[in-house]
Design a protein that fits this description.
Distance between the termini: 44 Å
Strand order of the largest sheet: 5-4-3-28
Low-confidence stretches: 1-9, 15-25, 285-297
Mean pLDDT: 76
Largest sheet: 4 strands, antiparallel
Number of helices: 5
Length: 401
């Protein structure tokens, strides 16, 4: 077993209560040192990076970041509840009293508030452990909940409610923000695209189109391996899958599975670990903003996972989950741009509840499985569910608040 030497100075950082007892170099197994490092504060980790190249590599490792996060929070999902971000643990094998266990609230302070009030968050766009958040008062911030680092992004022009955002990165790991400013709502006239470059700390226009638009009920944008994906629409051609490559700064159309005319796409999601794009569809449903699903209709619900997406937009899909909703004993509403998560291990969907007719806080759906989960606060409403993979990646500096 490999031992790592801890000098009194280093030991005082890791073991402040016992530092006076350590008068010489102490050796600990590497596994134990990793366990200790996973439990120290973010401020201490920043100093411990300088101890050695080995420690710096360990602290920067994604597996270490995930281990540290799980040890400290035991959370698997981020929920947006009443404009606040919470870490949530949902045990699919044992849901106690049909209640969601909210671990704790992630604190995002408002830099414009003298009393350090919490920010009211409107939407979240995750990418590699970083969260791009829009606020209720139309501001934009990039946030790392693990390190508590933030960067507030100033607009070139005023943000508005019709904007769509995506956080991504180029092949050289440079983070960028895509802003899609849609002119018009129900019948858009055009889309203008802007890129925010973290290095130059500025926005620049990269293009404009009148060929396609984003329906207001299809506005979820997903980030997968640094690129952005969303559902778009072209007059007379129906819905299709669009993407943006942050390296080339070009748009491309991504192929859908099978005969895409035989089903309706309800929404997109991303798997937690492998970062694969997911597609939620219903067979032979009417093309409408929403669909009422009755148990007697027994519609077929499918979840597809993209195993590979080529640079030209060609995608390989596998059908991951397929089930009827005949085990649902109440009316259930599937919406376009429906927010959902996929649990590969248990082969179920996690869907936020309280969508019109749904009275539950969270729904867990799968083949021969239907669990309605409540919240300890009966009035609470979950407006967003996102997977979260913690990271110690530092936000590129500029106008950092």
């Amino acid at each position: 077993m490999i031992g790592l030497g801890l000098t009194p100075r280093i030991s005082s950082l890791l073991f402040p209560k016992y530092s006076t007892l350590i008068s010489s170099t102490m050796y600990l197994p590497e596994e134990l040192v990793v366990e200790i490092l996973a439990r120290v504060s973010a401020a201490s980790l920043a100093r411990l990076r300088r101890v050695s190249k080995g420690w710096n590599a360990t602290i920067n490792d994604e597996k270490f970041a995930k281990k540290r996060f799980l040890l400290r929070s035991h959370a698997t999902v981020i929920m947006l509840v009443e404009h606040r971000v919470y870490l949530v643990s949902v045990n699919l094998h044992e849901v106690h009293n049909n209640m969601v266990k909210v671990k704790y609230q992630l604190s995002l302070k408002d830099p414009l508030s003298k009393s350090s009030e919490e920010v009211d968050i409107h939407d979240i766009f995750p990418c590699d452990g970083l969260l791009l958040c829009t606020t209720k008062d139309d501001r934009l911030v990039v946030w790392n909940p693990l390190s508590r680092e933030t960067r507030w992004i100033q607009p070139k022009s005023t943000y508005n409610i019709l904007d769509y955002f995506a956080l991504g990165k180029s092949s050289c790991n440079k983070y960028k923000i895509l802003r899609m400013d849609q002119i018009g709502n129900i019948h858009p006239d055009s889309l203008e695209f802007e890129i925010y470059d973290f290095t130059s700390n500025s926005w620049r226009v990269v293009g404009k189109t009148t060929d396609w638009f984003i329906q207001p009920w299809q506005g979820r944008v997903m980030s997968v391996n640094g690129n952005a994906y969303w559902l778009a629409c072209r007059e007379g051609h129906g819905d299709f899958l669009q993407s943006f490559d942050f390296s080339t700064e070009r748009f491309k159309r991504v192929s859908l599975p099978g005969d895409h005319h035989s089903y309706q796409v309800f929404g997109l999601s991303v798997t937690r670990e492998e970062q694969q794009l997911c597609l939620l569809t219903q067979n032979n449903s009417k093309q409408s903003p929403y669909a009422w699903i009755e148990p007697a209709e027994e519609p077929r619900i499918n979840v597809w996972i993209a195993t590979k997406i080529e640079s030209n937009g060609a995608a390989s899909w596998i059908k991951f989950i397929s089930f009827d909703l005949d085990n649902i004993h109440q009316r259930f509403c599937f919406l376009n741009a429906m927010n959902f998560l996929v649990d590969p291990e248990n082969k179920v969907l996690l869907c936020r509840g309280k969508i019109w007719v749904s009275k539950t806080f969270l729904n867990i759906l799968g083949e021969n499985k239907s669990i309605q989960v409540d919240h300890q606060d009966s009035e609470s409403v979950c407006s967003l569910l996102v997977n979260y993979a913690p990271t110690l990646v530092q936000i590129q500096q500029g106008s950092l608040v």
